Automatic annotation (TrEMBL), chains A, B:
Domain of life: Bacteria
Claim: Cytoplasm is one of the keywords in the record: yes
InterPro entries listed in its UniProt record: DNA_clamp_sf (IPR046938), DNA_polIII_beta (IPR001001), DNA_polIII_beta_C (IPR022635), DNA_polIII_beta_cen (IPR022637), DNA_polIII_beta_N (IPR022634)
Record-given protein name: Beta sliding clamp
Domain (DNA polymerase III beta sliding clamp C-terminal): residue spans on this chain: 255-377
Chief localization: cytoplasm
Organism: Paenibacillus ferrarius
Cellular localization per UniProt: Cytoplasm
Role noted for this protein: Confers DNA tethering and processivity to DNA polymerases and other proteins. Acts as a clamp, forming a ring around DNA (a reaction catalyzed by the clamp-loading complex) which diffuses in an ATP-independent manner freely and bidirectionally along dsDNA. Initially characterized for its ability to contact the catalytic subunit of DNA polymerase III (Pol III), a complex, multichain enzyme responsible for most of the replicative synthesis in bacteria; Pol III exhibits 3'-5' exonuclease proofreading activity.
Domain DNA polymerase III beta sliding clamp central span(s) in chain numbering: 137-252
GO molecular function: 3'-5' exonuclease activity; DNA binding; DNA-directed DNA polymerase activity
SMART domains from the UniProt entry: POL3Bc (SM00480)
Any GO CC annotation of this UniProt entry: DNA polymerase III complex
């Protein structure tokens, strides 16, 4: 293999695949980046077995020649050093040449770097995915859905299925659901009916979806999502992002969500979040994160927390609307803040069915999102 | 104590003193901030015994009333929670009221915070410093001198005196010197002779000087520096910054610096720093940081490093000038990069007296700064 490539384009491609590089090295060759050079361009591959990412740089675009190929070929280079040194090379033009035993020479300006490369044949093959089951989503919508749900996945590896986000497809509805034992987040969208036929429910790791989110472009381009038995492939322009599908059956969460409420209120989101944030500051010092909400006769709520050592925070918030019994309820303020952060609406609707029952939050004028947190059992 | 104060002004004052708050709590009251309110304004005090900082906010400035005092008094509030909650209060106007047993109520908008305060009489008194021995330096010059020397102090607490920067005053020259067992940095300036009379040599902790540097204003205002037997006081507008003077005698470093050279060269600083940085990336992987410099017949130097596992980096640099024997010398690239970073000059002069002797670096056309690093003994 021998070629020259423009530094900025190589750095961009490295940036895409770097999210899949293993830091834990059970398979030593996966600490490397695979480089494949052909006449049409250069493909970089990185994988940590859960996620594999491939990024293709074409030899030329409309305006310039990016890659000049002298000899096609492949090599695997140690990722950490390769990424750092490429970023710091002195000139735009970078020459990469692979010699005997995968010894690789990188030249740029007056720098010459020799790297011991590894045999590309030892690099694991990426899964082959049949393109029969497909779904198409706008990039920014997918990004938003990930943000609104993935924060609620379980971090406890003892029930691996709950570390993922469920993609539930019923008719033309696609619903994302994430939950741990204390909270649940769901978001639903309508998808193109032709594409959503015959699609099974799948569960994808929350961590993986967050990595995907960093690669997804902000502008509204369409992402093709191909689903196979145990892998899902996201096609993002010149990037292929492969993820493992989590094994197991996702629990039925529908029965957790009450259908009617004992108390309902409409609250200004930002005011509520800021008041809870101040109460959280104090509760955090006691390592409990417990904050109380007390509904009052005058259409206000009092948010409060107290710490035996430090003191007390008390906040008053005027409600837009309240109907039903006046409750006193305690909750984990950190969980509440996480939920409020993704409820992208000036006012939110909160429903209660009792001081020990789930708290349900939705945007004021939308039913496509739901955030649930369980209250704390406290003695007063 | 009872007053109202504008949030932005309180936050600014907190920002100044926060650098002196103890995180290690051998004296519990020092985890607090002391607040003293008088008719003229509010003084905040924080101290970690090495550093004490006092910041004064006047009741009014030319344009606005900042503080309204209802009752003078003092209190000590737990710093971490106080700082966080003040930053997050909903309104500009903050009311602070101290009740019985130093119970403190903070009100802002619809928030009310109760904090258990502590007795201000238990807070240690700041040192009283007689203003007989004084020095005056422009703020930006002091900042530069700190930057150019403090990086070289020892981090090894077994010789505490070397963790400080020596302030050596001889006639109208003030010289900062820092050194550990591998390198030395010095910077000299001419000071106003009247002020520098009768001033003893002092040693101030490098860590303290770095904290001071964060408070020093960028614009060219004059800082009064008052020196007593064991304390030094920096007066920065409305801030008083007290530092302990380190005990002990600073070693005589003058004999470390050669007076003539076997080889001298003039090198472009940025090119040298970037080449060494690339070589450092590789040497770091071997955890040695060793980089080699080889002088060549054609008025160039080769910078290189190698790692048995990863490979080799080789760099060529054209010199502006070289005279004397062609040497091959090895050094700690991290130390060299630290020194190059503060040598604020397009070209630098490097002097050598042999492969095992100190390397001396100076700006090309200035003698007021000197950076020294010791080479490595290597087998080739």
């Amino acid at each position: 293999m021998k070629l020259t490539i423009l530094k900025d384009h190589l750095i961009e491609s490295i940036g895409h695949v770097s999210k899949a590089i293993s830091s834990r090295t059970t398979i030593p060759i996966l600490t490397g980046i695979k480089i494949d050079a052909t006449l049409s361009g250069v493909t970089l591959t990185a994988s940590d077995t859960d996620i594999s990412i491939q990024s293709f740089t074409a030899s030329e675009n409309e305006t310039i020649k990016i890659i000049q190929l002298f000899q096609a070929g492949s090599v695997v280079l140690p990722a950490k050093f390769f990424i750092e040194i490429i970023r710091k090379l002195p000139a735009q033009l970078i020459e990469i040449e692979v010699k005997a035993n995968f010894q690789t020479i990188i030249r740029s300006g007056s720098s010459e770097i020799q790297i011991m490369g590894l045999d590309p044949d030892e690099y694991p093959l990426l899964p082959e995915i049949e393109e029969s089951k497909m779904l198409r989503l706008p990039s920014d919508l997918l990004k938003t859905m990930i943000k609104q749900t993935s924060y609620a996945v379980s971090t406890n590896e003892s029930t691996p299925i709950l570390t993922g986000v469920l993609w539930n497809i019923t008719g033309d509805k696609l619903k994302f659901i994430a939950c741990d034992r204390h909270r649940l987040a769901s978001r639903e969208v309508t998808v193109d009916n032709d594409n959503a036929q015959n699609l099974p429910n799948i569960v994808i790791s929350g961590r993986t979806l967050n990595e995907l989110s960093k690669i997804l472009p902000d502008q509204n381009s369409l992402i093709d999502i191909v689903i196979s038995d145990n892998q899902v492939l996201f096609k993002i322009h010149s990037i292929l992002f492969y993820s493992r599908i989590l094994d197991g059956t996702y629990p039925d969460t529908s029965k957790l969500i009450p259908q009617s409420f004992q108390t309902e209120m409409v609250v200004p989101t930002k005011e509520l979040a800021e008041a809870i944030d101040r109460a959280y500051l104090l509760s955090r010092e006691d390592k409990t994160n417990i904050v109380k909400m007390m509904m009052q006769e005058d259409q206000t709520i009092e948010i409060s927390s107290s710490s035996s050592e430090l003191g007390k925070v008390t906040e008053q918030i005027s409600l837009q609307h309240i109907a039903g019994d006046l409750l006193k309820i305690s909750f984990n303020s950190k969980y509440m803040l996480d939920a409020l952060k993704v409820l992208d609406s000036e006012f939110i609707h909160i429903g209660f069915t009792g001081a020990m029952q789930p708290i349900i939050m939705k945007p004021q004028d939308s039913t496509n999102m739901l955030q649930l947190i369980l209250p704390y059992r406290t003695t007063n």
